[in-house]
Structure formats: C-alpha cells, structure tokens
Amino acid sequence: MSFYFAIIGTRDNPLYTYEFGTSKSGGDGVARFREDQRSMNQFILHSSLDMVEEVQWTNRDLYLKTVDRFNNLMVSGFVTGGNIKFLLLHDQKAEDPIRQFFTEVHEAYVKTLMNPFYEVDMRIVSVVFDQRVRAAARKYL
C-alpha cells in the first residue's frame, strides 16, 4: 500500500509532504504509486480541500475520516484548531490506524508550533518533525 501525506496551511499552501509505503506486514516502506499516478498525488490532495472545508463544519471531531475519493484512492483528513489541514492519500480502508497516525503527527505539529522561530504557514523543515512523522508512519501504517 502506498500513502501520500501533506500538511496544508491556512492559505492552502503546502507546509510539509511525505510519500511512503506501508511498513506493516513485511512492507519495505517504499511507495508503490504508478508512475502516471505519482505526478497526480499533490493535485488530488489539493482538489479535495473543498470537501475538507465542507465536512469540517459538519463534524465535531478533528479527524474527518475519508472526505474524498479518486479512482481506487481515498483522501482522509484531519483539521487542527488553527485550521491547518492534514491530508492522507491512501488505498487502505482501515480508519483506526489512520486516526492514530494523524493524532501522533498532530502532537508533533503542536510541538513544532511551540518553537519560537516557527511561524504559522511556514514550511516545516525540522529534521525532528520529519523523523516523528516517519516513525508514526512506520508504527501505524
């Protein structure tokens, strides 16, 4: 299974992206998107932003579950209190591991926000944040 994760800022700008494959059940962690699909991943996530904004006002949870579909791929969303959107493009139907992944990444994001040198809507270039996202991906997905 393959995943494409992105954090989208309040001005619909990408703050962080990460493409990976499953590490569970003997997976090697390498994304297996088709070559023609790989170039579309970012477009698919950004096109689902309208659906995320629609669903976020009808859902009381931060985790929005699956908000959009494209062919055999699904987009799951998570919205922070500051309206930062976490989007995950995937082909997996299990909701609980995705929720746990988003929760752990949200915790790492909040710690990044507490950095006095980080401003909202800045690209996230922290090596520690990247390591935490990768660890959460290996752990849950």
From TrEMBL:
Q: Which residue ranges run through the membrane?
A: none
A Gene Ontology term for the protein's cellular component:
cytoplasm
One Pfam match: Sedlin_N
> Sorted alphabetically, which Gene3D superfamilies does this protein's record hold?
3.30.450.70
Coiled-coil ranges from the UniProt annotation: none
Q: What does the entry give for GO biological process?
A: endoplasmic reticulum to Golgi vesicle-mediated transport
Name-wise, this protein is: Sedlin
